[in-house]
Amino acid sequence: MGDQRDDVSSYERLNKTPIMIVLISGAFIAILNQTLLGTALPHIMNDLQINESTVQWLQSVFMLVNGIMIPVTAFLIGTFTTRGLFITAMALFTAGTLMAAIAPGFSMLLSGRILQAAGAGILMPLMQTIMMLIYPIEKRGSVMGMFGLIIAFAPAIGPSLSGYIVEHFPWRTLFFMILPIAIIDIIVAYFILKNVTKQTFPKIDVLSIILSTFGFGGFLYGFSIAGSEGWGSMQVILSFIVGTITLTWFILRQLNLKQPILEMRVFQYKMFTLTTALGMVTFMAMIGAAVVLPLYMQNMLGFTAFESGLALLPGAILQGIMNPITGRMFDKYGARWLGITGLSLIVITTFMLAFLTTETTFTYIAAVHAFRMLGIAMVMMPTTTAGLNVLPTDLISHGTAVNNTFRQVAGAIGTALPITVMTTTAIPNRGIEGLIHGVNISFVVAGIIALIGLIITFFIQDRKTEQARG
């Protein structure tokens, strides 16, 4: 514990504001980039003469590569300096953005997305690790709340911003817009960012990296294509079999290695395990609605891409505003009651979205979604911080890598599951009402998942609760 205090006191002398600005700018464009393409896909299809199953790879490959890169970040953080790793990740992201912007055809555009995802996959866990290291425990809630503001705001403005841009400008504008911000961030990071992570030079275990790639990659690929191919297709079943076998082998190998790539022993901390599960449930709830509601509004109610993006905007702004506030509340009161209140809100509002009709108004969708996002703001960052707080300093980078990896898997499930439920439970011969029936059933399933999350929150124990009992 003495080491942890010494580390914190040495970091107290750091001027943290410029470091935070560099990190948050990087996070903002990395996450914004993930959600920008959704409403632009029809335009890219027309321009590059490709079909739906091909174009959706621009989304799926981003999640896939992101999910594969994250488990390796704990190893990278231990091997390279903070500054070197951040600048390399941003450079990869920038090179990918440039490739995508000037891509003459689909293969180069896809390659650009792969590079972007590789950079973004390193950035997210690295940023969280830096924040957990340079701030003392009592301030981490507020800091992670500020970080959560960006995580919430970027995907929120993504669909409406993208909808507006592709209606008025070529789709390449989306990439050209991000490019200068990424370049400026690299230059500023070069001069401002300090090395705060410790270089422990862990031995590289090539087999672990291969197993991790096929394990997480298998699951992410399976969930990514389940929506279009169907859960019973050979491709999906094979992906899950490969994912299960290699992931089990990967976990067993990590437990027996002296220097594991991903330290699975973080799950020995009960609080970390519970909050990781909660984070996954909440992320699935958030991503699911962001995918299903625009489809329902555009395909069944006749709204434009821009309007369906606008419906999600009040919720995003509310979540953005609330993240720093819930961060401060976490520092004061802990995660338990925030989690219980937030998940109760998520459960109620999710079931409220299970009764949509052809008459449902824009205002109803925007208002219910806004309250849902308020619930998500109360759960996501506070529970993540509570889980990481119980870990010793040397396990924090592993904790953030594990947390981000499982959240990425939850994101892939949260994208594929609602779409699959929606398409398989729709009743096509009943017209629009039959299609909306599928949307409603997908929200019933999401509500049941949120209910499981609510039950988990009752098992959370805050430090303050434990101290009072002790």
From TrEMBL:
Q: What highest taxon heads this organism's lineage?
A: Bacteria
Give the transmembrane ranges: 21-45, 57-77, 84-102, 114-135, 147-166, 172-193, 205-226, 232-252, 272-297, 303-325, 337-356, 362-388, 409-427, 439-460
Annotated ranges, domain Major facilitator superfamily (MFS) profile: 19-465
Q: Which CDD domains match?
A: MFS_LmrB_MDR_like (cd17503)
- Is Membrane one of the keywords UniProt gives this record? yes
A molecular function annotated in GO for this UniProt entry is: transmembrane transporter activity
What does the UniProt entry say about where the protein is found? Answer: Cell membrane
User: Which keywords are on file for this protein?
Assistant: Cell membrane, Membrane, Transmembrane, Transmembrane helix, Transport
The record ties this protein, via InterPro entries, to: EmrB-like, MFS, MFS_dom, MFS_trans_sf
Q: How does it sit in the membrane?
A: Multi-pass membrane protein
Q: Does the keyword Cell membrane apply?
A: yes
Q: Which GO terms describe its cellular component?
A: plasma membrane
Short name of one Pfam family: MFS_1
Q: What is this protein called?
A: DHA2 family efflux MFS transporter permease subunit
